[in-house]
Each structure stands twice: as structure tokens, then as C-alpha cells.
Amino acid sequence: MTLFKLERNAEFEKLITHLEESSNPDIRKRSAEILGSLESETGGTNLSHDEVVDALVEASKADDDGRVRAAAIDALDQYGQDALEQFIGELSEQDIDDVAEWKKAQILARGLNAEQAELRMAAATGLGRIGEDNVLNQLVARLEDPDSRVRKRVARALARVESPECVPALSRNLHEDQYDVRVEVAYALADIGTQNALAELVEIADDDDEVLRRIAVDALGRLGSVEAVEILAGALSDETEMVRRTAMFSLVQLLSEAPPNASHQVREKIVDELEEANERDSVQPLIEILGRSTETAQRRNAAWLLGRIADDAFRTEAQDALIETLADDDEMTSKFAATSLALLDGDGLEQRLIKLVETDTKDEEMRVKALFVLGKIGGDRSRKRLSKFVERTESDRLRKRGFSALSKLGGMEMPSGDLA
């Protein structure tokens, strides 16, 4: 049975057998990685949580391949602090059970100077989980460890601690270390998220490496500043699709992250930059966000932006996405979709919305919002069709919204709110 099938079926016993007995280090390494990823499923197997941890601890200590030992330590991290401490305790011959967190951090910090690289790796990972800052200096010092595997785990630990004090040290590794460590450092700076941490990432937003560019533009979405907008807008024309897509997600995120005193300025800057960008690079990613994102703030902002930047070439596609969003579960998202649609009149939009309103099988919320838009963009055709519609519909809510639209089109006067 392949490792893929063993993972899919959560075959813990067979995975442990591969970890302990396979002559192929790649198979042992992958088995350790899978065992870590399956941590949440240990309760439904014949093997106990402790038995899996024991196997990973043994691999961390005794496997003759450093890659396997590193993978086993990372898997132990998935099983929690107790699993890591079991490994550290066995290798260092220290009992660290039932010790206060600050004291435990001091004990783990001593492991940062151990001769075995694997113990230094585990100590760094454990310190990241504890999050105590009384040993921060010792942890930061390990960013100069001769073993890149240790430096990577230190960067991950500092990302968990999220201390601004370690930004200068991380920044040095961001620009000078080997590639895989630079990636971990970039993620750490992004997680720390302070202005100076994110400013460091600005410098790698045009790096030759695609992964580093993507991390940078992803992190810059948290900066909430006008300065970040220009960099992200430039990344919309990146040669790599993943970087372009990430840049758009970050621009949308910026609308949420901008501080209140700069929100209007950031919003205007984003619209200006997107209007100047290639429309395919700006409109299509927004449509994708509306169709796929599960983040409410992202979908709200994407709906708002589409009405302000979609031009003739992608007007119909933008209309399609916004019409589908009229029935969104989030009321504010559906309102933004309606107001954006009203800004994208043309290409037969009026007729499409009339047909939507008159189709009884369509979602009622979608039809309500369509009536609102028709009240904004409709003409004589809408007035005639809606006059008949309000007479025959059995829905009180649709009738009320229909009268509201008619009143705006010069028809019947009927007091009503816009989008209730």
C-alpha cells in the first residue's frame, strides 16, 4: 500500500513500521511527516496517542539520517508541547515535568547550546510553544547557529513569540541566509507584523525568487498604509500568477487593515492604482475572490471595488459576479454588490435584472437587491414591467421593494428604505 493510501486511511501502525524499518530514508522521512499531519486522528485508532509519540521520539533520537530526525521533531511539534518535552527530557536526561513555564523555558534554553543539532532544534521549537520572553536573547542568538535546520526552527519559534525585539536579527537572516531559512524568516516577520517588520519585507517584494515575492506581498496586506498600495499594485503585473493573485488579496485586505485616520486615503489610492493597472490583472482576481473566498471582509471589499474599476472589457463578467453576490449571506456584502452593480450599467444589465426579478425560482434576497438596482438604473421598460410585477407577486417583501423602485422611477409613491 502506498504512503498516500496509508495517509488517507490513517494507517498509524503501518506508517510507524515504515518509520522504524524502511531502508529508504525518504520513506522514513515522509512517514514521520504523515504521522505529524494525522495527529488529530489518533483517537480513532488502535494505537494510542502516546504510542505514536514514542515512535516519533525514538526516530528523533536514533534514526541515522538527519532529515528523518528533523521530520520526526517537526511531527512531535504537531503532537504538542508534552511530546516535545518527552524527547528533550530523554535526550538531555532531565525531568522537566511539572515545572513552571518560565523555569521550563530556562531549561529548554540550555538545550539551544547542546552538541546534538536535533536537541537544539527541539529546544527552539519548544521555546516557541511556551512563548516566554525571559529567554528571548538566547533564542535570537541561535539565528547564527551553524546548522540551517536549527536556524529555520528558531525563525518559526520567533514567529510564535511575536516579539518586535527580534526584528533586527531576523532582518539580517532575511537578506544574508540561505534560501530555505530566508523563507522561514520572511514568514516570521509577517507574523510579527509590526511596521518595521513589514518594512523589511518591502525590500524583497521584487526579489528574483517567486516564493519570497509572494510572502512579501502577502505580508504587506497587513501594513495598512498608502506606501504598501503602490508596491502591491506593481505586483499585479508580476510574471507569476500566484504572486499576482496574492497581491490582489493583499490589496483587498488593506481596505480592512487601514487605520481609521488613513482609511479614506488608502481606499482612494487603491482605486486609483487598480484603475491604472491592466484590467485583467485587477478585475479577474476580484471576481475570483467573490467566487471563492470565505473571508467576509475580503468579499465585502471585492464587491465594493468591482463597481469602481471594472471597465468595458470585463463589465459583463463583473456584472455576473455581482449578481450572484446579491444573495450573499452577509447583508453588507450583498449591499455592496448591489451598489456596485448600479455603477456598472450597460451591456443589457437592466433587462437581466428584470428577468431575475420576474423569475419565481430565484432567491428572494437576490430579487430584492435586484429591485434596488433597477430603482437606480431603470427606465421606461423597468417602470412598465415592475408595475405589472407588484400587482401579481405574492411576496409582501418583493411588493414593497417593487413599489420603492417604482417611486424612484417616477411611478407610484410608496415610502420605503433602500435595502431593508
Automatic annotation (TrEMBL):
SMART domains: EZ_HEAT. This is HEAT repeat domain-containing protein. It comes from Natrarchaeobius halalkaliphilus. One of its GO terms (molecular function) is oxidoreductase activity. It comes from the Archaea.
